[in-house]
Amino acid sequence: MSNEALVTRLREHLGKAAVLTDSDVTDAYSRDMMPLASAGKPLAVVLPSDVEGVQAVVKACAEFGVPIVPRGAGSGLSGAANAIDGCVMLVLTKLDQVVEIDAANRLAVVQPGVVNLDFRNAVEKHGLFYPPDPSSYDWCTIGGNLSTNAGGLCCVKYGVTTDSVLGLEVVLADGSVLKTGRRTVKGVAGYDLARLFVGSEGTLGVITQATVALKPLPQLPSTFVAGFSSTEAAGEAVARVVREGLVPSLLEIMDATSIKAAETYLKTDVGAGTDCKALLLAQSDSGGEVARRELAALEQICVDCGADLAYATDDLEEGKMLLQVRRVVLTALELYGVWLTDDVCVPRTRIAELIAGCERISEEVGLRIAVVGHAGDGNMHPTIVYAPDSEDEFARAQKAFDAILDVSLSLGGTVTGEHGIGRIKREWLAKEIGEVGLKVHRQIKQALDPGNLFNPGSMFSL
Amino acid sequence: MSNEALVTRLREHLGKAAVLTDSDVTDAYSRDMMPLASAGKPLAVVLPSDVEGVQAVVKACAEFGVPIVPRGAGSGLSGAANAIDGCVMLVLTKLDQVVEIDAANRLAVVQPGVVNLDFRNAVEKHGLFYPPDPSSYDWCTIGGNLSTNAGGLCCVKYGVTTDSVLGLEVVLADGSVLKTGRRTVKGVAGYDLARLFVGSEGTLGVITQATVALKPLPQLPSTFVAGFSSTEAAGEAVARVVREGLVPSLLEIMDATSIKAAETYLKTDVGAGTDCKALLLAQSDSGGEVARRELAALEQICVDCGADLAYATDDLEEGKMLLQVRRVVLTALELYGVWLTDDVCVPRTRIAELIAGCERISEEVGLRIAVVGHAGDGNMHPTIVYAPDSEDEFARAQKAFDAILDVSLSLGGTVTGEHGIGRIKREWLAKEIGEVGLKVHRQIKQALDPGNLFNPGSMFSL
Question: Does ipTM come in above 0.95?
Answer without folding.
Answer: yes
